[in-house]
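Re: export button greyed out
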Amino acid sequence: MINDLVLRAARGEKVERTPIWLMRQAGRILPEYRAVRSKLSGFKELVESPDLACEVTIQPVDSLGVDAAIIFSDILVIPEAMGLPYQMIEAKGPWFEKTIQSQKDIEQLRIAQADDLPYVMNALKLTKRELNNRVPLIGFCGAPWTLLAYMIEGSGSKTFSKAKKFLYTQPQLAHQLLEKITQSSINYLKGQVIAGADMLQVFDSWAGILSPEQYTEFSLNYISQICNAVKEVPLTVFAKDAYFARKAMSQLNCATIGLDWTMDIAESREIIGNTKTLQGNMDPCLLYADQDIIKKETIKMLKAFGPNRHIANLGHGIYPDTEKDKVKFFVDTVKEFRH
Amino acid sequence: MINDLVLRAARGEKVERTPIWLMRQAGRILPEYRAVRSKLSGFKELVESPDLACEVTIQPVDSLGVDAAIIFSDILVIPEAMGLPYQMIEAKGPWFEKTIQSQKDIEQLRIAQADDLPYVMNALKLTKRELNNRVPLIGFCGAPWTLLAYMIEGSGSKTFSKAKKFLYTQPQLAHQLLEKITQSSINYLKGQVIAGADMLQVFDSWAGILSPEQYTEFSLNYISQICNAVKEVPLTVFAKDAYFARKAMSQLNCATIGLDWTMDIAESREIIGNTKTLQGNMDPCLLYADQDIIKKETIKMLKAFGPNRHIANLGHGIYPDTEKDKVKFFVDTVKEFRH
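Workaround output, generated via the alternate export path:
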């Protein structure tokens, strides 16, 4: 690997400078992405076309100079592979025609195998080859709780109250479903490693709407199973808003913990300890500010994390109306900084 | 006051049992509310009709047996009184035709006086009389940051990225606007006390999307001004998701701090100390569960808070699809419990 800074930082090895990549770095902020996307019928066509997914995955490596590529895909390919197809509705988000309501619904779901998602595997193989070892390639999946939330709710939601109702009223069924999602996710991540992923990330986007107790029972237990099963490459767990779970996450069998921008850096390091790499955690809205403010805040963040065991990133995906130049300036600021 | 448990708990006095009221207790969960509402053109007609607002304010005191009434109104009456009218769009939420973009927009805003909101003042007077001292009457307002967020964004939002962009790009203007909102809110709360409010609550609904540093600068400073200015009756500050601000909130000149359901009770008490009453903090989704689970979790919560300096509530407003019987069962469970 020509630039393996992200991998070395994940493993806790010394690095010459802090590496950086950005959640949603392949996307609407890049004109070259919008050019590819505008020719297609929709988001899913891009996800399901390995050559195009490969192309947009590599775009930010070329134009932003980030230290890793993350495969262009969606966490909802797993529910689909299990038997619940989704649509991505423009300006609305995901929508499932069928949702999970009963034991029978859960029994009818397949446990997904990596082979059920050939387009992701092919996109990874192609990207791995095209990247030609310039930077590591990151694979990913959604955390079981976050996927369950969509599979019950059927769409995005401010409260995911239907999904949470399911946890309160049908806890056994919830565990059955979480088991199936977890098995599917393990198969999927192992397949991604075989197809070329050098690192993995588990996204628990809706971690923060559960109580700490429910989070342990319905989310962390399953993330832990994934961490224990997938040991081939360094794995990152990013549980947005789950500030209350930082202590417990420090015990996970994973390399890196993602932080969002509400989490104080020094406090998080103290809670999590020194055996994990931390990833994050700039507020995506900082990238709306002028360069001098971006620079000042970025350097403050880098100093707070210190020279090792840190992978710079935002605390959430880039917002689509962010100016590309501002994103590039953020990336460059990180890359130019020396501790 | 026949039942002043909530007031005594707020002041830190001993109580025979833990008092309870619920955020959004007057609303869609009550059939008698839906009956009133169905005859009207919209939500705002109810807010602006003192006799009807009084009627729905008292409904949950009668039918749920809660220990306080909270005036039926909306936090967005303040932006409107300042010169930014809003509409409440069915199933969508608030919408502002005009938003704040520039210094000129801010200069054109009035500082609201209590007299600018005669329908709220009249609703309070009427309710105070009709309640006839059965339970305390709570008045409220939105926190300045939360109101600014709506005034810039123009509607609800998952990220409030326009409002946050304003903080990053126009911090001086943001402070000018926050000053005006704060002055208006102080006038408004003082007016509510004169009109009959026995207690007050400041709702910072969008506290959790700011970084801790921005929260201190753009929200807590202004909440603190309100707390220092309005000393007539006990005041509660509820900053949803602002777990990181609990220490700082313990220094506010207020009686009670609201907790959401992600905040561990023992940890929050340790962070906040013993000089504040705590309010909350059940997950609203618990009320979807069976009675035995509601009972078990409620008693666990009551024990964790202990016998004094606690006002039972949810950690957020009741979700509109909650069954009234479950809500009543939750209220009764709290009222029947003895430490």
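The mean pLDDT of chain A is 97. The button fix ships in the next patch.
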